[in-house]
Specification:
Length: about 200
């Protein structure tokens, strides 16, 4: 793994939020999926984590965003964690995986990864977290990879082009979106594996 991605450990991250502004809008849900290699050098989604997140004090939440992701931030049965606690739980597992794979740090994989990475970085800064295992600005974006591999940039269309099954009723949940993005990422990377091996 360390050789394949130049010392970086790819970890798929998806966030659900209260809007599009990482500085002002609430982080409401975060999910992460590890990418694991098999004995033949192919990759598959591994262990995953998903947490509901309490809106930070003063966070903005747009009604249109909540309608899309279906989150009721104040539902009495919603098991939400404080932002710092949710991030630290994810980071603890990611750091362990970085060490296990002899990598130097994690790199975020996301669909339109700029969005997820911005929200992650803003939350890290807000919480004063010093040991963020993710690279602060580099990422792998499945919208770009899907455009290269399949001529598609919309996640549902990439999923279908890759021969995977898209569940529209589960979309816009961080857990589902992270898992299906991980499957897309692995499908594309595995298609290029023979090219990578020929150059080694």
């Amino acid at each position: 793994m360390a050789r394949r991605f130049r010392g970086f450990l790819p970890v798929v991250v998806d966030v659900e939020t209260g809007g599009f502004n990482a500085r002002t809008d609430a982080l409401l849900e975060i999910a992460a999926v590890l990418i694991e290699p098999d004995a033949e050098g192919c990759f598959a989604p591994g262990e995953s984590w998903r947490y509901h997140v309490q809106p930070f004090e003063g966070a903005n939440m747009e009604a249109a965003s909540l309608e899309v992701n279906g989150i009721d931030p104040w539902h009495p049965l919603r098991p939400a964690l404080p932002e710092r606690d949710a991030l630290q739980r994810v980071f603890r597992e990611v750091r362990a995986a970085v060490r296990r794979h002899d990598c130097t740090r994690a790199i975020l994989v996301g669909h339109n990864a700029f969005f997820d990475l911005n929200f992650l970085n803003a939350a890290v800064e807000r919480c004063g977290i010093k040991r963020n295992p993710f690279h602060p600005f580099s990422s792998f974006d499945t919208a770009t990879l899907g455009g290269v591999a399949y001529g598609q940039t919309v996640l549902s269309r990439i999923v279908e082009a890759a021969g995977l099954e898209w569940d529209s009723s589960a979309a816009h949940s961080a857990g589902y979106d992270a898992r299906i993005t991980a499957e897309v990422f692995c499908r594309i990377v595995n298609q290029f594996q023979s090219i990578y091996e020929a150059r080694q």
